[in-house]
Task: inverse folding
């Protein structure tokens, strides 16, 4: 069993009459939360994005993803395979050949990821402005606090 997952996930059903079934339950044992944590981490997003158009070997994937360690790529691929998003094919040749591809379910997730990237591209300037304003406020507040002493 992979780290961060439960053998018997807790159902994410609230006893409240006004419960929205599409709401992300924030309880730690919630399976929806576990799945979102998995598919929304930066390495999983990159692997899914890269595998969208083609099947790749492990070393090809690692070359495509700047900054990922061999161990982290291994862990990410195993988790995505366990969740049914990536298919691993082992060929009985010497040296061993292993290919990775998105499953049909993984391909459907790529559409959502593409939407997230599009949103990010459309709002990156506003986010940069907000960050600059925030940093200036924090810096000013720190100066006021330091100057008051």
Result:
């Amino acid at each position: 069993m992979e780290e961060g997952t439960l053998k018997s996930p807790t159902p994410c059903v609230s006893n409240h009459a006004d419960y929205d079934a599409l709401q992300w339950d924030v309880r730690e044992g919630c399976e929806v939360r576990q799945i979102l944590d998995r598919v929304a981490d930066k390495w999983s997003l990159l692997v899914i994005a890269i595998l969208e158009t083609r099947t790749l070997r492990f070393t090809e994937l690692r070359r495509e993803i700047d900054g990922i360690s061999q161990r982290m790529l291994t862990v990410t691929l195993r988790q995505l395979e366990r969740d049914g998003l990536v298919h691993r094919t082992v060929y009985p040749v010497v040296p061993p050949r292993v290919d990775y591809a998105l499953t049909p379910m993984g391909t459907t997730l790529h559409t959502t990821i593409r939407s997230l990237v599009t949103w990010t591209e459309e709002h990156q300037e506003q986010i940069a402005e907000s960050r600059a304003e925030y940093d200036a406020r924090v810096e000013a507040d720190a100066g006021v606090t330091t100057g008051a002493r």
User: Anything to note?
Assistant: Confidence is low (pLDDT under 50) at residues 13-17. The first strand starts at residue 56 and ends at 57.
